[in-house]
Amino acid sequence: MVGNWPRSAIVVGAGIVGLSTAWFLQEHGVQVDVVDRGGVASGASWGNAGWIAPGLAIPLNEPAVLRYGLRSLLNPAAPLHVPASLDPGLWAFLTRFAANSHWRSWTRAARANVPLNDECVEAYEVLAANGVSAPVVAAPITAAFRTPREAEGLLRELRRLQAVGQHVEHTVLDRERLAEQVPLSGRELGAGVRIDGQRYVDPGAFVHALGKAVMRRGATVYAVEVDEVRTDDRKAIVCSAKGTVLSADAVVLATGAWLPRLARQWGVRVPVRAGRGYSFTVPVDHPVPGPIYLPDVRVACTPYQGGLRVAGTMEFRDPDAPRVPARLEAIIASARPLLRGVHWDERTDVWVGSRPVTSDGRPLIGATVAPTVYVAGGHGMWGMAHGPITGRLLAEWITTGKQPATLVDFDPLR
After folding, report:
1. Which CATH superfamily is domain 8-410 in?
2. pLDDT value, residue 10
3. Pairing outcome for strands 272-282 and 364-367
4. Which of 129, 322, 327, 406 could staple 115 via S-S, CB 3.0–4.6 A?
5. Is 178 in contact with 185 (CB distance < 8 Å)?
6. Strand pairing of 51-52 and 348-358?
7. What single-letter DSSP state applies at residue 69?
8. Domain limits of the chain?
9. What angle do CA 364, 136, 162 make, to 5 degrees?
10. Closest among 285, 264, 224 to 373, alpha carbons compared
11. What is the reported pLDDT for 63?
12. Angstrom distance (rounded) from CA 68 to CA 157
């Protein structure tokens, strides 16, 4: 370390958050290596919906979600599912999540997200203009409902975002305009809300392109699992059970739903649990001009390689547990009546991934009790949207020693 600023860093985690942090550290002249047990995009960064949607980055901890979750506990087909379990850590997390599911906590999370939302598209544009060769597509996201009354729930959420400073350009659609905007909309859908100014990507392709860009700039990506992170007077040291030992001036822990395993020893006490999501790809008979959101059944659909990627559910289960076929069938059963021309039985790319959810609705971004150890994670459903701007802000902190004001509410030691 020269002066107080690191010349080298190790990023643990090769998803969108970790690789973005690595890329922006390289922009500051830091030599970076990356470690991930599965390699690039092996976790939640591959199979998600790929939305860069600042207009829909709504904190999960609103009172309505708590009420919905309580009603869903006994319904294994519900979009939000908590399996019967004796896991005391899970129930401790859910208790804290429930304690934070009130409007004061939601408002704090929503207000804290505003700067991330305002800058997230620009951060993607910086990457795309500087060697990350994967398209970032501009398109509105259209939320579709059975009735105008159902649409009012989303419109209330948008008004709440407006009240905390997040302006969302949107247009209410009647049945005819919805059908024009969403050719896949079925007869049951009679109203919509078009959210303008959004983007989407093929998440796996984008993260792999980002990984290649990081490696072209001199990084090595090690496909090993980190078992220990320790520090001495000068260095952060990363070790694996296979004998790999790396050292650098700083280390960033960006391991998603697995974050607590390595971060807890560095003073990070905010619980993080895996909110697992499922996705698959299906052929369609009609054009897909842009992403489709079905809020009533919590399903997100995105144009993907000539078909439709369908993603949904929030399942609180161990991140390494095998996928549960019933969760997949529940997504299909809920979306099938709403969309037409979808070949549900020809699905491919079936996937489950673990989104890191915090108990208070705010991610963990910043320094820990050790001056050489930082964390970046806990973005919930919005890791894809907020990954690059997180990386840019954290790299600024690491290389200047000054905490950006945007990151104050995301203090990992709160």
Report:
1. FAD/NAD(P)-binding domain (3.50.50.60)
2. 98
3. unpaired
4. 406
5. yes
6. unpaired
7. H
8. 8-410
9. 55
10. 264
11. 85
12. 16
What are the structure tokens assigned to 295, written together?
Answer: 């809020």
Task: Please give the angle made by the CA atoms of 294, 121 and 410, to the nearest 5 degrees.
Answer: 85
The position carrying tokens 């547990």 is 321
| Burial of 390: CB neighbours in 10 Å, binned 0-12, 13-18, 19+ | buried
Residue with tokens 């076929």: 325
Q: How many Cβ atoms are within 10 Å of 239's Cβ, its own excluded?
A: 16
Asked if 178 and 191 touch (Cβ cutoff 8 Å), the reply is: yes
What is the C-alpha separation between 243 and 234, in angstroms, rounded?
A: 21
Q: Which residue has the tokens 């020893």?
A: 265
Beta strands in 249-387 (DSSP E): 250-253, 272-282, 292-294, 299-304, 307-316, 348-358, 364-367, 373-377
Task: Tell me the C-alpha distance between 293 and 153, whole Å.
Answer: 13
Ranges of the chain whose pLDDT falls below 70:
1-4, 66-77, 84, 86
pLDDT of 5: 81
304-314 CB burial, b ≥16 within 10 A, e <16: beebbbbbbbb
